[in-house]
């Protein structure tokens, strides 16, 4: 068995002139087992190997990292039992959603905007509710709920679905790499047109090196952080898709939506399993406030978005979390500028500050995880997605059967 290389460092013992005292108080330090160059500051929790940095941790033993994630996957799969609480809750959500869809379809034969209102939308004219009649307001809200207005908007292609997202590069310390300067970059910026970043670009990583978790907290990171990451990524993808990629147009509104969707950031929730985290997010997506986005079908698309970002790996995750952090910070700045009561402003600022801290900590945590962690987490979510789709199909089938039986009974009566 290979032994650790131990070095005695008399200089660390103090300024005693006695050789005996130097020997007795000398600080014993261990050399990194991987690079054999630096002093080891950390210990692998699985094999107790000593290492000096994240790079050496990743290279010290693939068996440690892979077996660790494999055990996590198996633990999650064991918790996905047919009769678990998450499944029962999801069935209730789906039944309620199908009932509301039926009531809406029975209540109105059509939800078509007037020609005048369509022209206003198409011309880009600002529409205020106070300028509309009661009938126009009703039609406008129905068009929002049915998705009729979304057909008039050019669909946004998320940055995580672009080929360039597969080759994101960051420095080993997590910070953004220096970009090459070209002629376009040296041109004088237009303060009107250049004040906002283009929404089709890959979001930038951290501007400065990320600190280690040991610098942020003395406590050990929660083993549930991977589950909380699922909640945060869902909220991020939901918000960007709702704003068609352009959260910069309304940072305060976007940050408010993000906190209402993320129970981890908005309500300090601590889901313990992936099904629990996803169920809470999907329930919010299917609620009356957001049902117009597409309900369960839209929610499943967001689960796919999470899987895609995880499959892109380490750097894409850091860029996504940094983009989310900037969104929350922009919302926080807008709260100060908005004319709201002091109490309301203090509450909003407090929530946004807490969310920003959580996002920064999550970014640092992600940076220290081995890249092997993300495919394993993606597989857990993929299994859960298939389970949700099967559940939804069964629920619709049961609802149709129940509806047909009710109609037959009514006809007989």
Automatic annotation (TrEMBL):
InterPro entries referenced in this protein's UniProt entry, alphabetically: Shq1_C (IPR007009), Znf_HIT (IPR007529), ZNHIT2 (IPR039646)
Keywords of this entry: Metal-binding, Zinc, Zinc-finger
The HIT-type domain, residue ranges: 32-64
Residue spans crossing the bilayer: none
Region annotation (Disordered) ranges: 1-22, 189-208, 394-413
Molecular function per GO: zinc ion binding
Composition bias, Low complexity: 8-22
Stated name of the protein: HIT-type domain-containing protein
Taxonomic source organism: Paspalum notatum var. saurae
């Amino acid at each position: 068995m290979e032994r650790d290389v131990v070095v005695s460092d008399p200089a660390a013992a103090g300024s005693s002139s006695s050789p005996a005292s130097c020997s007795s108080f000398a600080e014993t330090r261990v050399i990194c087992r991987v690079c054999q160059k630096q002093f080891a500051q950390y210990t692998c929790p699985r094999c107790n190997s000593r290492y000096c940095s994240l790079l050496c941790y990743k290279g010290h033993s693939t068996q440690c990292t892979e077996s660790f994630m494999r055990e996590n996957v198996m633990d999650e799969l064991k918790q996905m039992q047919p009769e678990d609480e998450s499944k029962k809750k999801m069935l209730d959500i789906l039944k309620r959603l199908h009932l509301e869809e039926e009531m809406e379809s029975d209540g109105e034969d059509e939800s078509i905007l007037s020609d005048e209102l369509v022209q206003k939308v198409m011309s880009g004219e600002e529409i205020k509710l106070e300028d509309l009649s009661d009938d126009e307001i009703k039609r406008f809200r129905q068009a929002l709920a049915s998705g009729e207005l979304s057909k008039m908007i050019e669909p946004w292609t998320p940055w995580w679905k672009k080929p360039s997202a597969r080759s994101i590069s960051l420095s080993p310390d997590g910070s953004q790499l220096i970009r090459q300067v070209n002629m376009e970059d040296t041109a004088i910026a237009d303060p009107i047109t250049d004040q906002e970043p283009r929404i089709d670009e890959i979001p930038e990583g951290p501007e400065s090196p990320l600190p280690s978790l040991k610098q942020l907290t003395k406590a050990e990171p929660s083993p549930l952080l991977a589950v909380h990451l699922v909640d945060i990524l869902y909220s991020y993808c939901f918000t960007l898709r709702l704003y068609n990629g352009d959260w910069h147009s309304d940072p305060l509104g976007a940050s408010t939506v993000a906190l209402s969707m993320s129970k981890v950031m908005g309500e300090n929730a601590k889901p313990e399993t992936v099904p629990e985290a996803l169920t809470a997010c999907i329930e919010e997506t299917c609620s009356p406030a957001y049902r117009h986005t597409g309900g369960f079908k839209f929610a499943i698309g967001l689960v796919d978005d999470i899987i895609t970002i995880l499959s892109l790996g380490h750097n894409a995750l850091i860029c996504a979390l940094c983009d989310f952090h900037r969104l929350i910070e922009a919302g926080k700045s807008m709260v100060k500028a908005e004319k709201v009561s002091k109490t309301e402003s203090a509450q909003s600022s407090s929530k946004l500050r807490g969310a920003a801290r959580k996002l920064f900590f999550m970014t640092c945590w992600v940076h220290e995880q081995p890249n092997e962690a993300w495919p394993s987490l993606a597989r857990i979510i993929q299994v859960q997605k298939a389970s949700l789709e099967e559940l939804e199909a069964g629920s619709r089938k049961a609802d149709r059967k129940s509806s047909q039986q009710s109609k037959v009974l009514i006809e007989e009566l």
